[in-house]
């Protein structure tokens, strides 16, 4: 078993090694392009891969709720994603924020890449749009806060999650690895581990 929390370029080296050694892989790395996602899918024909933008149980539940909410509210509601992380985090939006954006798109049964809106950094306020806009705040030593908002103009529905301890990510990765141990080749997610429909 290989547990990978690196950068996309490194993940593909890990996958080549895993293929040769017939090892299963848990991928916690984020920031893959659509083309790279397809390459991971091809590798999953040879070995079991579990890929998650976030290993937290709570975040994966939030993702599930985001999809359900987006589906229920439909196109009459606009949405946006807000996230806060420590000042050392280089990428924005976070992989988790993008994952939640994908949850909105899945709920609407639309292509996420076509719904991808503007990406703001350190803005006090940012607009709703027909696309999904993202705002990232980088400050202090905050571990991670994520918020999905839906607005009809008459009401706002907010789903959010706050992480207090980084240990929840490693615990989630170990849980995923134990689950993946007995699986056949294929591409899995934390949703499979948690048995969400």
Structure description:
The protein is α/β, with parallel strands linked by helices and 197 residues long. The chain has 2 domains: 79 residues, NAD(P)-binding Rossmann-like Domain (Rossmann fold); 107 residues, 2-Layer Sandwich (Dihydrodipicolinate Reductase, domain 2). Helix content is 40%, strand content 25%. The protein contains 7 helices and 9 strands. It has a 5-stranded mixed beta sheet with strand order 5-6-4-7-8. A 4-stranded parallel beta sheet has the order 1-2-3-9, sandwiched between helices. Helix 3 packs parallel to helix 4. The model has no long low-confidence stretch (mean pLDDT 94).
Keywords:
25% strand; 9 strands; Rossmann fold; 5-stranded mixed beta sheet; single chain; 2 domains; 197 residues; 7 helices; alpha/beta
CATH class of the largest domain: Alpha Beta
Number of helices: 7
Mean pLDDT: 94
How much helicity do the residues have? Answer: 25-40%
Overall morphology: globular
